[in-house]
Amino acid sequence: MADTQQVDAKAERKVARLAQQISTFSKAHGGAEGQVAYIGERGARIVLVGADGGWGDLVAPSYEIAQKAVEKSGITVHEDFDGEFAAKVTTGTYEWKRMAGIQLGGSRG
User: What is the per-residue DSSP string for 6-65?
Assistant: First the structure.
């Protein structure tokens, strides 16, 4: 029983930490929306898009923890990273140069 309680407490701390990071991102970008994607054994990726077009992501150790974190943060969550949602992302010079370099076989970093 003690092991289960330790795992649950650890998971709840991770949920709280992720929710805080999501909330901080949201405040810094005038609000935010997100999408949770399962990425295999690694867990789940939380993609965040700010109202100003800024974006970022976080990785949670499980899909369940990611879901709880976005719910706790209070942001709008999308099922898919579809065209309408993706169109809210603003990319800058850095991203365009990096994507061009990868496409042309150039530097990836």
Answer: HHHHHHHHHHHHHHHHHHHHHHHTTSEEEEEEE-GGG-EEEEEEETTS-EEEEEESSHHH
Q: Is residue 12 over pLDDT 80?
A: yes
Distances (CA, A) of 93 to 50, 97, 105: 18, 6, 18
**Which SS3 state, helix, strand or coil, does residue 2 take?**
helix
Whole-model pTM: value is 0.77
Both structure tokens of 90: 């603003």
Structure tokens at 89: 């992302």
Q: CA of 63: how far to CAs of 15, 28, 58, 93, 94, in Å?
A: 11, 25, 12, 32, 30
Q: Which three-class secondary structure state does DSSP give residue 109? A: coil
Q: 26-30, 61-65, 100-104: which has the minimum mean pLDDT?
A: 100-104
Mean pLDDT of the chain: 85
Taking Cα atoms as reference points, which of 31, 61, 21 lies closest to residue 45?
Answer: 61
